[in-house]
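Run log, item B.
One chain of 467 residues. Sequence copied directly from the ordering sheet:
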Amino acid sequence: MTYFFETYGCEMNIAESASVEQLLIARGWTKSPSAQTADLAIINTCSVRETAENRIMGRLGWYNGLKAVRECKLGAKTKMLEEAVEYVKNGAKPLTLVVMGCMAERLLKEFKKDYPFVDYVVGTYAKHHFSEIITAIEEGREAFEPDDTEQYKFASVSAEPGAFSTFVPIMHGCNNFCTYCIVPYVRGRELSRPVKEILQELDVLAKYNVKEVTLIGQNVNSYHGEEDGAIINFAQLLQKIADHLRETSSPIKWVRFMSSHPKDFTDDVIDVIAKESVLCRHIHLPVQHGSSAVLEKMNRRYTREQYLALVERIKSKIPDVSLTTDIMMGFPTETEEDVELTLDLMRQVKYESAMMYYYNPRSGTPAAKMEQLPVEVRKARLQRVIDLQLEHTQEQMARRVGKTVPVLVEGVSRDNKEELLGQIEQHEKIAFKADRKLIGSFVNVKITELSGNTYRGEYVPEPSRGV
C-alpha cells in the first residue's frame, strides 16, 4: 500500500511527519509520488497564522474532489485528477484522508462536522494511535475516532528516511503565552522528553548514518528532563549529548537546536557551546522586536537591554558564532520610534539572516483584540527591516570568503549537476566541484566567493573536523 504526505509549518511538524512515515515504512508501505495515486494521504497542519489555515482549507477542497473521483462519484474535472481516474480503473481502493497537527487539534470538535470527507482527525495528543489507524486501513475497517485526551507521547524516532540531517524532539508545548501566539493553546504545556529516550534516538540515528541533528522544541532552553530521578536542565543535556556522541564514536558530528527563548538562555548554555566542538557555532535567537515597550506588549519577558547583553555574552565567549533571529513588525501599539529601535538593534547585532514578517491577528490570542495598525503600514515597516537585513546578510557572509571550513555534503546542486551542495557549520549553503561519493560526509572546502546567499568554493582533500 502507498502513502503521501503534505506537511505545513514548523520543524516539529516535519519531525512528527517523519515519525509517522517511519511507522508506515516499517509496516511495508511505500511512498507515492502524488496524492492521486496513494492509498493514504496525510496532511500535517499548522495553526500559527490564519493564512496557513486558509491554505490548508483550500487543499481540503481539492482533496474532497479527489476522494469523489476515487470513489467514482465524480468525473475528473482537471488534468491533475485524470491520473486518479486511471488509478481507479486499475482497481485502486478509495483514498483514506488523515488530517493531523495543530489545526486538527484547534478545530478537533468541528473538523469532522465541517469536513465529513476527512476519515481521521488526529490531534496533537492522539498521534500514538497511528498504528491502529494503519491497521484499520489495511484491514478495510471503518474509521474510528482516536482518543485525544491522553498525555503527549514522543515518537521513538523522527528521522526522514535517507536524510543525513534530521530533527530530534526534546520537548513539547509552551508555557510562555506570548500575546500573538496560538501555540500554547494547540500544543499545551511544556513537557520534556527523558534524557534516556533522547540518547537512544541518537544511537538509532547513528545506525542510519545521520551526520547532523537539530534538537527541537517550542522553547528548548526551558528543557527540564528526567534522568535517574534527577532533573536535567538544557545545558546539562547538551553536555550529556556531547559526551555520549564522543564515547560512542558516533557519526553525528554536528548538533544544533531551536527554538531558543532569550529569557531562558543561560550562561551555562553559552559555556557548553563554547567548550564542545560538536555543538554548532550557530544560534537562532528570536528577538521579535527591538523596542522594550513592544516586547512587553508581546509578553516576551525580557527587555531590549537584556537581549543585547545576552548577545554580547554569546559573542564574547563564542567569537565565531552566527546569530539568526525572528522579527515581527506592525504589532499593535508599535510607533515609528519603536521601528527605529528595532533597526538600531539589528545594526548592533548584525544577524546573519532573519525570518521577517508583519503581524497578522490570530483569533484566540490577546493581541487579536488590540487595536490594529493598517496593513499597508505593517508592510511598509517590514520592508525597511528586510532591506536592512539583506545588507547585513551580505556583510556577514562576505567575511568568510577566503576561509577553509568543514562542510557537510548534502547532495548534488540543482543548479549545476557537476557540483555538490553542502552546508557549513553556520548553516549556510556552499556549492563546489567534487566526486559524488563524498555525499553524506564531512569535507574541507575553501570559500572562494559569495553568489547571492550561497557560497562557492574549492574542495580541499584533507581530513576535516567532522571526519
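Observations after the first pass:
- The mean pLDDT is 91.
- Residues 375-398 form the longest helix (24 residues).
Flagged for discussion on Thursday.
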